[in-house]
Specification:
Blueprint (H helix, E strand, L loop, with lengths): L1 H23 L7 E4 L5 E2 L4 E5 L5 E6 L5 E5 L5 E5 L3 E6 L3 E9 L4 E9 L2 E14 L5 H13 L8 E6 L6 E7 L6 E13 L4 E10 L5 E10 L2 E9 L1 H5 L7 E10 L4
Parallel strand pairs: 3-9
Antiparallel strand pairs: 1-2, 1-4, 4-7, 5-8, 6-7, 8-9, 10-11, 10-17, 11-12, 12-13, 13-14, 14-15, 15-16, 16-17
Length: 263
């Protein structure tokens, strides 16, 4: 009798344990997003940064049971397209949004979306000057070069950031740090694009307005030396010094830059 009771208890226990496992479902990896190039993995509560006025970003959904339900909680900020394999996030306006992804096993992840203005950030690695004037004395040339360096809007370790605030991507806000750790000077800029047939490169010309300064015109160009290509922000300052040095033909300052936009 006792043996039959014990056998019955073992059978009931096994049945209950099996039911318990079944009710819990299978164990799945957390739901994540992976960029189209496979280099970026976005996990629960991470922030996705998307530049405004762009086509957006594409991701694959990983983890969970593979049957996903997407919920866009801020449709005025961003919209999504999902074809069962790829989810595309398309920015609509500046701000924060949230995307919630669940599956049929009640796994869930939320992703914060920050739609921001696109920016380009450059740090000054070095500075060079060019002073031309065949009738200038050696001492005058040296003085002009020293004055150009002294009055430069940026020093070595300084930086400049262009933040585009219009859909045409040709204007916005500018922030300049004369040197690392220094105070910022802010203003606005407009941008035009041209092509230099002599060097075969595109030129971006900026007209910058800063509080307390005259309008500054600068050209962003690329230079190549010894198979090394780098960016230069060139400022023609001839007019600044020509009244004092009538024999001056041309004076420029070049800021040799490191593009740190994505750093």
């Amino acid at each position: 009798m006792k043996r039959n009771l014990l056998s019955s208890l073992i059978v009931i226990t096994n049945i209950l344990f099996t039911v318990f496992l079944t009710s819990c479902g299978e164990s799945y990896a957390p739901i994540t997003l992976v960029s189209s190039d496979g280099k970026t993995h976005i996990t629960n509560n991470d922030t996705i940064y998307i530049d405004a006025f762009t086509e957006g970003m594409d991701f694959s959904i990983r983890g969970g049971d593979g049957k996903y339900v997407l919920e866009n909680q801020n449709r005025d900020i961003v919209r999504y397209e999902y074809n069962g394999e790829k989810v595309s996030l398309i920015p609509l306006k500046i701000g924060y949004g949230s995307l919630r992804i669940t599956d049929y096993e009640k796994n869930e992840s939320r992703f914060i979306i920050n739609v921001k203005n696109q920016a380009r950030i450059f740090h000054v690695n070095n500075i060079s000057t060019e002073v031309l004037g065949g009738d200038l004395t050696q001492n005058e040339t040296k003085v002009i070069e020293e004055n150009i360096i002294e009055s430069a809007i940026m020093k070595v370790s300084g930086s400049i950031e262009f933040t585009y605030t219009v859909e045409e991507m040709n204007g916005g806000n500018v922030t300049i740090y004369q040197q690392e750790g220094g105070n910022a000077v802010t203003g606005i800029f407009s941008q035009n694009e041209s092509f230099d047939s002599e060097i075969g490169n595109k030129i971006l010309s900026f007209e910058i307005s800063l509080a307390g300064y005259n309008k500054i015109k600068m050209d962003l160009i690329e230079k190549t030396e010894n198979n090394y290509t780098y960016k230069v922000l060139r400022h023609d300052v001839t007019e600044t010094y020509q009244s004092q040095y009538p024999k001056l033909e041309k004076a420029t300052i070049e800021y040799i830059l490191a593009d740190t936009t994505d750093n």
